[in-house]
Amino acid sequence: xAALEKIHILKFRNLSDQYFxxxxxxxxxxxxxxxxxxxxxxxxxxxxxGRSFKTKNLKDIVPFDDHQIQITAIVDGQKISLNKxxxxxxxxxxxxxxxxxxxxxxxxxxxIISPDRGFVVGGVPKLKRSYLDWGVYHDNExxxxxxxxxxxxxxxxxxxLNNGEQTQLDEWLVFLATLSxxxxxxxxxxxxxLSTVLKENKSKxxxxxxxxxxxxxxxxxxxxxxxxxxxxxxxIISYLLNSKKTLMKTKHLNSGPHRANIDFSLxxxxxxxxxxxxxxxxxxxxxxxxxxxLVKNKxxxxxxxxxxxxxxxxxxxxxxxxxxxxxxxxxFMTDIGNNKLPLKEExxxxxxxxxxxxxxx
Length: 361
Ligand SMILES: Nc1ncnc2c1ncn2[C@@H]1O[C@H](COP(=O)(O)OP(=O)(O)OP(=O)(O)O)[C@@H](O)[C@H]1O
Ligand SMILES: [Mg+2]
Hints:
- The protein is of the alpha/beta class.
- The chain has two domains: 1-109 and 300-361, Rossmann fold (3-Layer(aba) Sandwich); 120-299, RecF/RecN/SMC, N-terminal domain (Glutathione S-transferase Yfyf (Class Pi), Chain A, domain 2).
- It has ten helices and 15 strands.
- Helix 4 (125-139) packs parallel to helix 9.
- The relative contact order is 0.18.
């Protein structure tokens, strides 16, 4: 089980240089607007992913009067140190430098739900793919190589198209088709596992979160035109080779796994017809399914929930907290603190955050 035992935030946005010893179970961080709640959640996410969910620019997150970010933590007895400047990025685990962020996310699988990241139901395709691929990766770590190869292949194809070059284009398109089938297979398999988890837990875990009975459907759109069988490599190859003229005109490949999407619906209503509260509630369900799937595979993520009580009523909050407490994952959640949250006292610790300083209540 992944758990953060000790955290030392040295430099990250407005957070002060401080040590923070979290609870193994639930950590509630309370603070008024602008005190650093989201910054703290972002710093923990950063530790597990080597990047932010809010920005691509390092300069946004280095403290205003500094030029680097620095966080250190003990995770299951191992020390992780992350140090980034504009020119240098260094991640050290137990004294050894590591070069890939995927190693970090294996060590520290972090799953987040935050209004600043956006909610997956009703969200943009890019966000949906990021939720999807996080799960696919944790289900099967080998997929990472396929994704990396796909990214490189796509880049090469787009460069050729952009330069109007045809040499080697066919070879790259054929290779892309092969990789695409692998990625799509994994994505279908993952979505199918989530549907199974939903079926198995529908009445138990979700009954108080969603007024039962409910019919929640998530469907993968593979990114290829509807008439093409996304699992048939030969069909994709013919499609791509036959579309070369158009591709040369558009100068980039605008179909394929990089354009995949998930369509959500609740009780027959498409996601765009759902209210914001309903979208948020179903985003929590999807997120919980992802957590359950991971737990089923004997991995325990650390979960981050920013602004838990905005848009969710007390019953829903209680069912989410009960669910997470039951499966015994470490939780970091923030709240503005207007209402008392239904926490199990023996399994939780509350902190306040003010001006970037975290204090135990
Ligand atoms: N790079 C940075 N260096 C220093 N301070 C920063 C930096 N980036 C953001 N801040 C400041 O951090 C403060 C806290 O932001 P944060 O988003 O964490 O607040 P919050 O507690 O989540 O508030 P809310 O309840 O409104 O969501 C903001 O006042 C912001 O100006
Ligand atoms: Mg915030």
